[in-house]
Write a structure and sequence with these properties.
The complex is a heterodimer of chains A (140) and B (460). Chain A has 4 helices and no strands. Chain A has 140 residues and is an all-alpha fold. Chain A has one domain. In chain A, helix 1 runs antiparallel to helix 2 and helix 2 crosses helix 3. Chain B has 460 residues and is mostly helical. Chain B has a domain of 160 residues: Four Helix Bundle (Hemerythrin (Met), subunit A). In chain B, helix 1 runs antiparallel to helix 16 and helix 7 runs antiparallel to helix 11. The longest helix of chain B has 38 residues. Classes of the chains: A mainly alpha (140), B mainly alpha (460). At the A-B interface, helix 4 of A face helix 10, helix 11 and helix 14 of B.
C-alpha cells in the first residue's frame, strides 16, 4: 500500500522561533563572506556577533557563534595556505596552483557546505553545530 | 505503486542499470589504457573505448529519465498513462538501437560503420558525444517524440502540477535541442557553435529541469512537506538554471573562432551557474529539516540528499574553477575539464537517476514503501563507495590537470602533449584504483537488488 502524506508525522517546524531571523542573517553573512562579498560579509557578521552574542535568543546566539568561529577558521586557513605557498617556493612556483586549487575545492568548498547546512537549519529554527570547527551550543 | 501503468518504468530502470555497468567497465578499460597504451589493442582501441564509455553514459541516463517520467507522470497527473503499450514498444526500440550502436562501435571500424549506416546521405557522425550513426539518431528522435506524445497526452487529461510541467518542459527541450545534432555545417566554427547547443544546452540547461523535477518529486514523497513550498523552490531553481545556463553556453565559445565578446558573456553568466546548484542544496536540506514524516527508505533519501551536494561540488565548484576566460585560456581541454565532467555528471545526473530508482524500485517490486534493512545497508555501502571513489577520481584528475597545465602551457620550456602524459602517469594510476573501487561500489548496488528480498521491509 502506498503511504499517505499524513503517515509518520514528525513535529511541525513551520513556526518562527525567537532569534530565527538573526540566525538566518548570520549564516547568510558567513556565506556572503565566502562567496560574493569577501571581507564585507565578515565585517557585518562581526558587528552582529559583538552586538548580539550575549543578549539574543539562544538560537541566534548559537548561529552567530558558529559562523563567527568558522569565519575565523577560514581566515586562519587562508594564512596557512599562503604560508604553504611561500614555503614551497613562492608565488611563481608551479606548486602555487596545486595548493590554491586543492584549497578551493576541498577546504573552501567544505566551509560553503557547512554554511549551507547551517543556513537550512537556521531557516527551520534549529540549532547547528559546525562539525570539527564549531563550538558546542550549550543551549542546544 | 498507485497506478498500474507506472510499471512500464521498471524495464527502463533495469536497462539503465545494466548499461551503467557497461559504461563503468569501459571506464576501467579506458583508465588502464591511459597508462598501458596497448591494453586490449587492437580489439578495443582507445578512441572506441572512450566513445562507448561516453555514449553509454548518455544512453543509460536517457533510459533513467524516461523511466522517471513514466513513473512520475501517472502519479502526479493522477491518471493512468495514455498508452503503456507505446511506452513498452519504445523501450525495445531504444534498447535495440542503443545495443546495436554499441556493437557497431566495437565490431567494425568507425569509418565502415558510417558507410554501412548511410552517413553519406545525411552526414551527422564523427563529432564527440554525437558519434551515433544517423539512423540511430533518427531512432532517438522517434523514441523521444513517442515519449513526449505519451506523457503530454497523459498530462493533458490529468492534473497539471508544477513538477510535471517542469519535467515535460525539460523533456521537450531535450528532444528539440537534440535536433541540432542533424545540423552539420562545413564551417568548423558554426559546427562547434551548434554542437554545443546539443551538448551544453542539454547538461547545463534542460537536463537541470528534469533533475529538479525528479528531486522535487522524491522530496515531496519522502518528506511529506507541502507541495506548494517545494514547487516555489523548484520555480526559482529552474529560473536560475535557465538564466545562467543559456547564455552560459558562451564559456564554450572562448577559443573556437567566435567574436571576443563571448569571453565576457561566457565568463559572467557561467560564473552564476553554480547558484541553482547551491540553491538545490539549500532546498533539499531545508525540506528534510521541515519533514513531516520519517520515510523508511533511507537509501533513497541518501541518494536524494547526496545529489545536490555532489552536483554543487562537481558542476558548481569544479565548473567555476575553470570557467572564467582568463583561467580557461590555460586549462581548456586538459584533465581539469575531465575532473569537472566526472564529478558533475555523477552528482547531477547519475545520482538523481539512482535516487528515483531507489525510491521507485521497491514500489515497482511490490513493496509498500522500502526494501528490507539488509538490502538498504548494502545499497548505502554502494552509495558511499561510489561517491567517495568519484571524489578521489576527481581529485586525482585535478592534480593531473594542474601539472599538465603547468608543464604544457605555463612552463618557460613547454613540453609536448605525450611527454606530459608520461609525467602525470602517477595520477592516472591512482585514478584507476579509485575507478576500480567505484566499480566495486556499483557491483554492490546491483547486489542490493538481490539481497534481503524475503525479509520484512524496513520500518521508519
Amino acid at each position: 500500500m502506498q503511504r499517505s502524506d499524513a503517515d509518520n508525522n514528525l513535529s511541525d517546524s513551520d513556526e518562527t522561533q525567537p532569534g530565527q531571523a538573526l540566525a538566518v542573517v548570520a549564516e547568510s553573512c558567513f556565506l556572503l563572506n565566502l562567496i560574493f562579498l569577501p571581507v564585507i560579509g565578515f565585517i557585518i557578521l562581526t558587528v552582529l556577533y559583538f552586538r548580539y552574542r550575549n543578549n539574543a535568543p539562544s538560537l541566534a546566539r548559537c548561529h552567530l557563534r558558529q559562523t563567527f568561529n568558522a569565519s575565523i577558521w577560514a581566515g586562519i586557513m587562508l594564512v596557512l595556505v599562503n604560508g604553504l605557498i611561500i614555503l614551497f617556493g613562492g608565488y611563481d612556483s608551479p606548486s602555487v596552483w596545486v595548493i590554491v586549487i586543492l584549497y578551493l575545492t576541498s577546504f573552501h568548498a567544505a566551509f560553503i557546505m557547512y554554511g549551507t547546512f547551517g543556513l537550512t537549519r537556521a531557516m527551520n529554527g534549529q540549532h547547528y553545530h559546525y562539525p570539527l570547527i564549531g563550538r558546542e551550543c550549550k543551549e542546544q | 505503486m498507485q497506478y498500474k501503468s507506472q510499471a512500464v518504468a521498471k524495464p527502463y530502470f533495469i536497462a539503465a542499470i545494466a548499461l551503467f555497468v557497461g559504461q563503468i567497465v569501459f571506464g576501467a578499460i579506458l583508465g588502464l589504457q591511459y597508462v598501458m597504451g596497448d591494453f586490449l589493442f587492437p580489439e578495443i582501441p582507445f578512441n572506441v573505448a572512450r566513445m562507448v564509455h561516453t555514449n553509454l553514459l548518455i544512453v543509460w541516463l536517457l533510459f533513467g529519465f524516461m523511466g522517471a517520467a513514466y513513473y512520475m507522470v501517472p502519479e502526479e497527473t493522477e491518471t493512468e498513462l495514455y498508452s503503456p503499450k507505446l511506452a513498452l514498444i519504445l523501450f525495445w526500440v531504444f534498447l535495440a538501437a542503443g545495443v546495436l550502436t554499441i556493437v557497431g562501435y566495437l565490431a567494425v571500424p568507425y569509418a565502415t560503420l558510417a558507410e554501412i549506416t548511410g552517413n553519406d546521405l545525411l552526414p551527422t557522425m564523427g563529432r564527440e558525444f554525437l558519434e551515433q550513426p544517423t539512423i540511430t539518431k533518427i531512432g532517438i528522435v522517434i523514441v523521444a517524440l513517442g515519449l513526449l506524445f505519451n506523457i503530454s497526452m497523459t498530462a493533458l487529461k490529468g492534473r497539471k502540477t508544477a513538477i510535471i510541467m517542469v519535467m515535460i518542459l525539460g523533456l521537450w527541450g531535450l528532444a528539440i535541442f537534440f535536433l541540432f545534432s542533424f545540423y552539420n555545417p562545413e564551417n568548423l566554427v558554426l559546427d562547434k557553435i551548434f554542437w554545443w547547443w546539443v551538448v551544453h544546452l542539454w547538461v547545463e540547461g534542460v537536463w537541470e529541469l528534469i533533475m529538479g523535477s525528479i528531486l522535487a518529486f522524491v522530496l515531496i514523497k519522502m518528506t511529506g512537506v507541502d507541495r506548494e513550498i517545494i514547487e516555489k523552490w523548484l520555480y526559482v531553481i529552474i529560473a536560475m538554471a535557465l538564466i545562467s545556463g543559456i547564455i552560459g553556453t558562451g564559456h564554450h565559445y572562448f577559443w573556437i573562432g567566435t567574436p571576443e565578446y563571448w569571453q565576457w558573456w561566457g565568463s559572467i553568466f557561467s560564473a552564476i551557474e553554480p547558484i541553482p546548484f547551491f540553491m538545490m542544496v539549500i532546498f533539499a536540506f531545508n525540506m528534510v529539516n521541515k519533514r513531516k514524516r520519517d520515510h523508511p527508505n533511507k537509501a533513497a533519501m541518501l541518494w536524494a540528499m547526496g545529489t545536490p551536494v555532489v552536483a554543487f561540488l562537481g558542476a558548481g565548484v569544479w565548473g567555476f574553477m575553470h570557467t572564467l576566460a582568463p583561467v580557461n585560456y590555460y586549462t581548456h581541454g586538459t584533465q581539469i575539464t575531465a575532473a569537472h565532467g566526472h564529478l558533475a555528471f555523477y552528482g547531477a545526473y547519475v545520482m538523481i537517476v539512482l535516487a528515483i530508482i531507489s525510491y521507485a524500485m521497491p514500489l515497482l517490486r511490490g513493496r509498500a514503501a522500502a526494501n528490507s534493512k539488509k538490502s538498504q545497508v548494502v545499497e548505502m555501502w554502494s552509495f558511499w563507495l561510489m561517491t567517495v571513489a568519484m571524489i578521489f577520481i576527481t581529485l586525482f584528475l585535478t592534480g593531473a590537470g594542474i601539472l599538465q597545465v603547468w608543464l604544457q602551457r605555463i612552463n618557460e620550456n613547454p613540453m609536448g602533449f605525450m611527454e606530459v602524459q608520461d609525467k602525470i602517469a602517477i595520477f592516472y594510476w591512482m585514478r584507476e584504483v579509485a575507478g576500480i573501487i567505484f566499480l566495486i561500489g556499483l557491483i554492490l548496488y546491483v547486489v542490493s537488488f538481490f539481497v534481503g528480498g524475503d525479509e520484512e521491509e524496513a520500518s521508519s
